[in-house]
Amino acid sequence: MSNEMGKILVTGGCGFIGSHTSVLLLKLGYSITIIDSNSNSSPKSIKRITEIASMESIVLENKISFHHGDLLDYKFIENVFDIENSKFNKINYVIHFAGLKSVKESTNYPINYWDTNLVGTINLLKVMQKNECKNLIFSSSATVYSHKEKEFISEKDPLKPSNPYGNSKLAIESFLRDVYESYNENWRIACLRYFNPIGAHPSGLLGEDPCGIPNNIFPLINNVASGQKEFLEIFGDDWNTSDGTCIRDYIHVMDLAMAHIKTMELINSEKPQYLIMNVGTGIGTSVLELIKTFEKVNHLKIPFKITSRREGDFKNVVADNSFSYSLLKWKAELSLEDMCRDGW
Ligand code: UFG
After folding, report:
1. Please, where are the H alpha helices in 133-270?
2. Relative to the CA of 290, which ligand 1 atom is closest?
3. pTM assigned to the model
């Protein structure tokens, strides 16, 4: 399977989800090319990816290459395709992770978010089209939903992002649908709407290490556990949930990585299509449950203080994953304990 699928271009392959997916692609025998601007990641990820591969006795010869550059630079993407397609194995699939992803930052810098996320994707698609590479998995987010108070969110639920980051993700989904519908339907495109990815590769060599101060709960818990931060602020314990704290659908990043590969293999085996799919475990966990599990598996204490609700937060965000299960015949396998242990 891996050879006939050609080479896979991973944009943002040094980032949290991109690096974990790259490791798994190599493990499963795929050849990859990573591009990354390293604006919110480190080029050291490449070294870590190859270290893990050698620990796992994966033969890497001609299987991985890296190009440092930005998707806003059209010429750079063109060059990457030219260089890689002159080798024996052409780029046939793109898994597109690259983009800006902070909800809070996006409200302060909307122009930058729209430019990087949307224009970067348009440049990528232009070069893909030119090179007859028409297979794409796009990194979308549950942030596109309107988040009406529902126990489980399905792909058919209303869409209404509440911030520029979410708006840019939804706009890209629409752009990709237009591309699929307009070109004789010969593109294979899947948009994966992630819930809350946490955890890390079990080797401890890769993880989530955002540049600057993190906003997401898991890197913040890690910062408290390592003593970099005195305590965790819990944003409200007066929500209408079992313990008063918000519920999220946390998914192990290795499971999320596997979801990309399963999706790629599925769309490769079917006629061209445009697909939208939730990727979550379908299991809700409260902030307090997450902290307790982290403390239990890592034998640590996470001091916390209850503070007021964070503006724009939602009580409950959990995936209805029945659609992805019916298509992929696969469900996330790793537990909250695994996420907390591997993430720490
Ligand atoms: N939380 C705290 N304290 C913190 C940080 C977070 O209590 O210091 C709580 C939040 O209130 C929330 C939960 O932890 O209940 C998770 O918060 P995150 O910021 O980690 O994640 P969100 O669910 O708010 O947002 C995430 C991604 C977004 C994505 C969204 C999709 O960060 O990019 O899921 O629903 F859009």
Report:
1. 164-182, 217-225, 253-269
2. 14
3. 0.95
